[in-house]
Amino acid sequence: MKTLKLAAIGAALFATATVAQAGQTFDAVKQKGFVQCGVSTGLAGFSNPDSQGNWTGLDIDMCRAVAATMFGDASKFKVTPLTPVQRFTALQSGEIDVLTRNTTQTLTRDTTLGLIGAGINFYDGQGIMVKKELGVKSAKELGGATICVQPGTTTELNLADWFRANNLQFQPVVVEKLDETVRAFTAGRCDAFTTDKSQLASVRTTLPNPDNYLILPETFSKEPLGPMVRQGDEAWFNVVRWALFAMIEAEEYGITSKNVDQMLKSNDPNVQRILGVTPGMGKNLGVDDQWAYNIVSQIGNYGESFERNVGQGSPMKLERGLNATWRNGGLMYGWPIR
């Protein structure tokens, strides 16, 4: 009996310690008054600064959504630009609170780094871009080619896997920073450039003559991109995950930045819970009940963010594809806010 009592006491102490640990990042963010987000060093459509240093993009909107959830103000964030090699160390060390940089979620990253993915905000796949003058129409014609790739990425591993599986040889040209990789490709140091297809489309819009470049049809991999946080802090993990789900759910229920105030009068119980008309959902996250209202009113729903940054309202003009809602044939499926 004594042993059982001691075990019970030990379990209670462990649970208490776990709860205390769980709020560490949440409490630190609240105390300093802003969210520190890790982003790419500059990728049009995802995270890119303008001439005044104002950052915009799909991944920036993810960061802003977390800020809106925590503070009711989407402007309360700062960014730390990171290369692929730097990103995980920055999150592990606490230099940043959340990695909103376009990062592929994989088993290895979820189980060996002390980090965990909090959701997917863009479904992508890896491809290859070439100059049209090369006369290549398929990646299978690139045997013996030199290919520019960034180190420390799933891209580097996928490239080797695909060429090996197709019995083709290639010569990697490894360059760490994206802008340097693009310069190497356009200067002719490599025959082709590989990364996620969305990134290739983004890069192509920045080149002097975009029509001179071709993204080949092959898709080498699945690249589910989304935010990551440190493991062991469930309170913070929930804030990041549900900020994303709120944007997806808002689109599904037709709640936009333009009609969100009108939707406060909706009789739909789902809409009432999303917008905080029905109380309780904010308390469960440790934030204000109008957290999702603040996201949508200041940033928009997921569809608005997509179209503005990478869709038809942007220079990239990407189709929704896999990033459409599940009702429209895509994979975007927010969990119920209830």
From TrEMBL:
Source organism superkingdom: Bacteria
Protein keywords: Signal, Transport
Gene3D superfamilies: Periplasmic binding protein-like II
Domain Solute-binding protein family 3/N-terminal: 34-263
SUPFAM superfamilies: Periplasmic binding protein-like II
Annotated signal sequence range: 1-22
InterPro entries: Bact_solute-bind_prot3 (IPR051455), SBP_3_CS (IPR018313), Solute-binding_3/MltF_N (IPR001638)
Family per record: Belongs to the bacterial solute-binding protein 3 family.
Protein name: Amino acid ABC transporter substrate-binding protein
Organism of provenance: Orrella daihaiensis
